[in-house]
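Title: [Solved] Putative multiple-sugar transport system permease YteP 3D structure

Original question kept below for reference.
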Amino acid sequence: MTGTTGRDPMTATTARPTATGETDPATPAAANRPMVPGRHRRGVQWRRKDYGLVILAAPAIVFFLVFAYGPMAGLVVAFQDFNIKDGVFGSPWAGLSNFEFFFTSGQMARILRNTLVLNALFLTATLGAGVLLALMLNEIRGTLLRRGLQSAVFIPYFVSPIVISIFLQAFLAGVGGRGGIVNDALNVFALPSVSWYTEPGPWPWILTIVKVWQLGGYFSVIFLAAITSIPEEVYEAGVIDGASRAQMAWRITMPLLKPTGAVLLLLGVGRIFYGDFGLIYAIVGDNGILFATTDVIDTYVFRALRTYGDFGTTAAIGLFQSVVGFVLVMIALGVQRRYSKESSIL
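Solution (posted by the thread starter after getting help):
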């Protein structure tokens, strides 16, 4: 109990001058505390540990500034008749002629079709395989077995494309281009052998199988990490309702993986105009017979640069890839926000 002149510290107020010069005795004391310079800036409060995070991020920021944003100044080459003697800033201006060369070369339709078809197959197949592998690995109860299998399916991600091409040569052509493990298996069932390296038709599916083998385990690890973040209470509720493991995987796990899948799909759409140059060139090389279904923008640019040494045309094609990829990412973001706002990253 306080006296008539006492003040309750929990409700203490401090007088504050008003617009008329008078004081407002009902203003809380905390409102009269002076602002500490640098503490609040545009609604963001900086703490001491935030500076440590900035220092940790500094090497990555410098890396991208030097190797990602710095070279963007060289995009001017796409509009020049570039030659090494005059350099980037001394080469004569060519306008849009470098773009015209690509679009009027007669090969643009085939190259764009192959790039889109192959990347669409790669993206859908690898994401589907990643989800399926993650669901199967999540159902394994033994911790050691699950971790061992998880490591085993992740190993192909580190295998070099050159090694993959050697394996594929053994499977499809064998020693000296004769036979091969696949042809031997076909002969067992009285089916004729196939000259795989002279038949362009099956190669989109062959490359897709290789891509699934290489990236399926990688994506499964990402989806497994998302599965581990799902609260256990959700599955306990499913058990109480009498749901089977398959029903819980389909009705609970799959819907909760949508945000992760949406992000991976968005990233894939952004690079749908970029072919996997390392894998495709290591396997196909300069085999012109297979170009009808395997020649993508990146392999075409490499051959053009190696054959003609035309830096302007190759830079123009690279700029075209980047601009179209940016447009596709923005379109995908718009579709995602419209139809699946809960999984949108913006």
